[in-house]
Amino acid sequence: MKDIIVGIDLGTTNSEVAVLEDGKARVIAQGESLILPSFVGLDDNGEILVGEAARNQYQVYPERTIKSIKRQMGSDVRLSLGGKSYSPPEISAIILKKLKLMAEEHLGRSVKKAVITVPAYFSDAQRQATRDAGEVAGLEVVKIINEPTAAALSYESDHEGSKRILVYDLGGGTFDVSVVEIEDDIIEVVSSHGNNRLGGDDFDRKVVDHLLEHLQENQGVEPGELTAQAMARLDRAAEAAKRTLSDHPFARIEEEYLHERDGVPVHLSLELSRSDYEAMISPFVDETLQAVHTALNGADLTVSDIEEVLLVGGATRTPLVQRLLHEEFGSQPRCEVNPDLCVATGAAIQAGMIAGEKVAAVLVDITPYTFGTSSFHELDGRPYPYYFVPIIAKNTPIPVTKSEVFYTMHDNQEEVIVNIYQGENPDALQNIKIGEFIIKGLSKVPAGNEIINQCSLDSDGILHVTAREKKTGLEKKISIDNALSHFDEAGLAQAKGRIDSLFHPDEMTFEGEAVSVGDGREGEHRDIVQARAVVEKAERMLDDASAEDREEMVDLIEAINDALSEGDMPGLETPLEELSEILFYLEG
Ligand code: AMP
User: Fold this and answer.
1) Residue 572 has what pLDDT?
2) 3-class SS at 333?
3) Hey, which residues are catalytic here?
4) Does the C-beta of 37 come closer than 6 Å to ligand 1?
5) pLDDT for 243-273, tens place per residue?
6) What residues make up the domain containing 176?
7) What pLDDT digit, counting tens, does each position of 494-505 carry?
8) Which of 317, 318, 396 to mutate for ligand 1's pocket (most ligand atoms within 8 Å of CB)?
9) CA-314 nearest atom, ligand 1
């Protein structure tokens, strides 16, 4: 029987082991989890703990728990555990041994060889220390490969020709960015930069600071008063809230009986919004973007030389990170291979190649379409009622649940129409409408009532959409079957027809030609729709406007209607702009 070679991502925060099975890389689970926290410790009885159990005791027993040993690799520090002293490779070997055992248990045979990944910037001494750790764990390290190379292999194992990609890797405690060049089957890191003291843990710390401030301001609890257990609970709550905010606009944090003050229990209860959270972490994200430019400069390249950005590391699930990279590179960064696992799967692919096995690309179930809804927003510098707001982005692995918050536009607005579209165009009307429903009976409150719109796409292609009034929990749901198969050419044509039919034939003519969606006149079509929506809105607001404003609005509405009926598109511009300005002012 051929020797099996496993692929190992020996990470600062987490480690994984993967193996090639039937040509496909598969990460091996430990119980329910595919991730082994890179923590080593001793329990009360002096027994060795590795992974989750060691991580759980870290806050309470830091003196007998070791974390982030990867940072010490290559140095000659000694670490003490249970009265004995260990070198960094020895501690790493404990983690590797555990991964080896997990692989053996899964495969039902012994595992003696491994490919192990290291950061691109690792020195020879650090690489050697990693090799040593493997040997101590009973593994022959057949190859050490760079983490960005492994990530690229997960995405591009079957790539032909050349390609230049940027691997952006934001883990728990480290950030690395690398420019990688692929030339057929050769993958080379041409430049690398980073900060090995920056990662998702810093985001957690910001949230913890916020929680401590909240406790201080609202309940007079001084941070120093809290026990190690209470601090550990805050850390966990902060991390959980951070993860929630990657998919939802708000996170609730509830920690009952966190503390006791003068015999009175202290409960923590607050809500954190994504926008407040993003403000806390944006300096960190900005720093990573500067590092991206340093790495590009190092390779004598600019943003436009990069064909693709690959996301690696759990913290790249942060929407702010994805949004800023999208803005910077002009295309959505790729994240369809699980960012926590793609270094391990790449290592397994490399291992399989060395063993001479046939390798298939890492395939995961993803949505090939973006799903979202529409709202009033600026499009091309003008307010537009059908601005497309993506909720589940194309290429997201499924099943997935994401939500976004929307706001009512009018005081006492009692209902909201939720339109659901599939497509990529910022103009929702250029996308395919796949569903619509109305949520009624909303509270009579001023404009700005928060409505949470949630989309869940399951592996059977069913899209569940829920709109919920945040204040009361009132909600309405629909399910759309076959959300993934709706959208062939025929569906597209049908949808376009449906949208055209919203207009009277006489409204569709412009200089003797039909204005239909998708005939190259999208801009004009949009102007017409927009103008109508603005007029409609202005008419609704006339009653609440002052006499002076009303007079001006009536004149402008008339001018817009005239321009529309004459098909005078240039003539539409000024009155439309002026009317929009008044509406914004009135709403303000
Ligand atoms: P890694 O070292 O690559 O395993 O990344 C771990 C980091 O990713 C930790 O800081 C996690 O809290 C963070 N992380 C994991 N999942 C998410 C998520 N859904 N949103 C934001 N950060 C996450």
Assistant:
1) 85
2) coil
3) 9, 70, 147, 169
4) no
5) 999 999 999 999 999 999 989 999 999 999 9
6) 5-199+283-366
7) 544 544 454 444
8) 317
9) 8
In DSSP notation, 518-580 reads TSS-HHHHHHHHHHHHHHHHHHHHGGGS-HHHHHHHHHHHHHHHHHHHHT-HHHHHHHHHHHH
DSSP 3-state assignment of 356?
coil
The answer to whether position 339 is within a domain reads: yes
pTM over 0.90: no
Residues 399 and 535 in one domain: no
Of 363, 367, 335, the C-alpha closest to 484 is 367
Q: Report whether 539 contacts 557 (CB < 8 A).
A: yes
State the total domains in the chain: 4
Is 491 among the domain residues? Answer: no
Using alpha carbons only, what angle is made at residue 280 by residues 276 and 284, rounded to the nearest 5 degrees? 140
Closest CA to 381 of 228, 263, 527: 527
User: pLDDT tens digits, residue range 313-348?
Assistant: 999 999 999 999 999 999 999 999 999 999 999 999
Q: What 3-state class would DSSP assign to 510?
A: strand
Q: Which of 202, 206, 242 to mutate to test the pocket of ligand 1 (most atoms within 8 A of CB)?
A: 242
Name residue, tokens 């395939």: 363
- Ligand 1 centroid to residue 185 C-alpha, Å: 30
